[in-house]
Amino acid sequence: MSEESSFPERLPELPTILDTLPVSLIIYRPDGILVWMNRSAEQLWVAVRAGVIGRFNILEDPQSVEQGSHELFARVLAGETVITPAVEYDTRLIHSTIEVTGTIRIWVESTVFPMRTTAGTVSQVVIMHRNVTERIEQMRAIDAAQNEIRIQRQAILSLSSPVVQVWEGILALPLVGSIDTRRAQAITEDLLNAIVQHQTDIVIIDITGVPVVDTLVASYLISAARAVRLLGSQVVVVGISAEIAQTLVQLGFESNQFMTLANLQAGIAWAFEQLGLEVSAQGYSRTS
Known about the structure:
By secondary structure, the chain is an alpha/beta fold. Helix content is 38%, strand content 26%. It is rod-shaped.
């Protein structure tokens, strides 16, 4: 090592260091006038320093005022350091005195702290901005996708378990596909609402399209039948196979809980008989 080498090495001047920081840094006077900004701030706010310094006032800019710049400055001038949540800015709406070189919308998080004199008094307000636009946009995209999934799920549930008015006083509920706890709750709610709306006398639950009837589905059928009966309607379940019958028996199903028939045709015929109706080419009429 040569004798000419010495430590510590000569460092760049502080303004040079601040100007090359990869984070937006802006300094304001207590009255809100912008007095300095680094290159990263120019890039973030799409603004030219020459057109900003001494001309932009954060306490007069409508967007900044709306975001609470007056309260923020008061807290920092009192000696507090404040970290703000992400807020959105439109560079097109920044104070008209700024020479904007682009038109973009950005989301930023800010750390605002006081700059003090050697005597300890607050002389300026410093704001460091972090660009979180990409993160916010990703979060919004995820929220939109999740909302779309919820909408599609509700649509699928509605299409796969429609409550159909077969005739005056008769509703049919054709179940299709697998049934889990969430779907069972939704189906029951839709069915009970339809019963009240249509003043239904008889409900036909068709489980022909349900591929597997396990204890969960069988339990749902029993619970749904009880709820329907509490509203004063009769229930007939159609499409029951021998395997389903065995599952119902294992759950303690009693034959007086609801009527069971082979298929939808038999269920409709039974419902008509219960209401004393008969169908003809001219419509339907009471048999008694």
